[in-house]
Amino acid sequence: MWAALPAYTVLRTTRRMDSPAIPNGNLSEELTMKKTMAAPTMSMRVFEKRADQILAEFQKTLLPEHASEVIGINVDTGEYVLAPDSHEAWEAFLKRWPGTLGFVVRVDGGPVVKFHGR
Predict the structure, then answer these.
(1) pLDDT tens for each residue of 71-81
(2) Boundaries of every domain in the chain
(3) pLDDT tens-digit profile of 16-41?
């Protein structure tokens, strides 16, 4: 079912010089659809299972030195990026593999963020 879903798209504002309606030579803004993520290459169940297997392999070499760091795994290629927090991990992941579905978790498998209530 997951593979049948369309690729994720997002609206972006672009400025185009070749737009037919450019009064007084000013730039016009047009909304265009840009694909930002490729279609999924596997079902979510297979994705999660493979991500857990890859994480287990990386944990053998990364623990205990990098236990509190966050890992971003490209499940399609088996490559990863390390960062001190999830925000930086996602930025590094998307910079290296734009438009790719990623798996981001702490290296030790623990929670990335803890909420402390009153």
Answers:
(1) 999 999 999 99
(2) 2-35, 44-106
(3) 444 444 455 544 444 334 444 556 67
Q: What is d(CA 54, CA 61) in angstroms, rounded to the nearest whole number?
A: 12
Q: Are 75 and 50 in contact (CB under 8 A)?
A: yes
Asked if 7 and 37 touch (Cβ cutoff 8 Å), the reply is: yes
Residues counted in the chain: 118
- List CB contacts of 29: < 8 A, sequence separation 6 or more: 13, 14, 15
Distances (CA, A) of 64 to 54, 70, 74, 75, 109: 17, 13, 22, 22, 12
**Contact residues for 57 (Cβ-Cβ < 8 A; gap 6+):** none
- 80 sits in the region (left: phi over 0; alpha: psi -120 to 50; else beta) called beta
For strands 9-16 and 28-35, give the pairing.
antiparallel
Instruction: For residue 24, give Cα distances in angstroms to 14, 27, 29, 49.
Output: 19, 9, 14, 57
CA atoms within 13 A on the CB side of 99: 11
